[in-house]
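Q&A log
Question type: sequence-to-structure
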Amino acid sequence: MHRRSRLLAGVALVAAVVVLGVLVSPAVVLARLAWVVADPLRLLVALTLVALVRPLFAWPTTLIAVVAGYGFGLRGFPVALALVVVTSLPPYWVAARGAGTGSVAAAGERLVAEAGALRGVAGSRLLPLPSDVVSAGAGVAGVPVRAFALGTALGEVPWVAAGVVAGDSFATLDAVSLSAVLDPRVVVGASLLALLALAGPVYRTYERA
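Response status: OK
Response body:
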């Protein structure tokens, strides 16, 4: 009964996050940022708050990069990268606290042991996957927080750079679009780097399973 209650609670939480993500979408946030973007300090505070609450609404992390690029220009890259690391920590911590000893956790631990924590996280970040999925996977696999943070910073570089460049290129806030980050060249290039980083460890992990 206890397991059933936990399962129902988990399903309810996921459903609530999805509903919130729909009702409070990134498009709604972007539409209300004109006043914030007008002042750099205000924008920095707003981006920090967005980074802290983003996991609750299942917003893409590229929202931070695009808005930083629009408000700060290319100089917003380090700010955006730091905040992307910050916003990735809550899903990681939640998954780490709830991690058990099942087959998924064991498989993740084997892959981390084979690839190394830093390489595993950085390579996974390069893949065009939802950020929170990678964060949760690292938490379940028992990746140390320092390796997780550094690996996230390294692996998110192309995505954050693409978001900042896209944000900087928009003439008006009305033109801002998160889809602009998904440049096929960025997707292919980052995926190839991920393949180089992870192909060997994944193959060896599979062979030893």
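Response note: The chain has one domain: 26-208.
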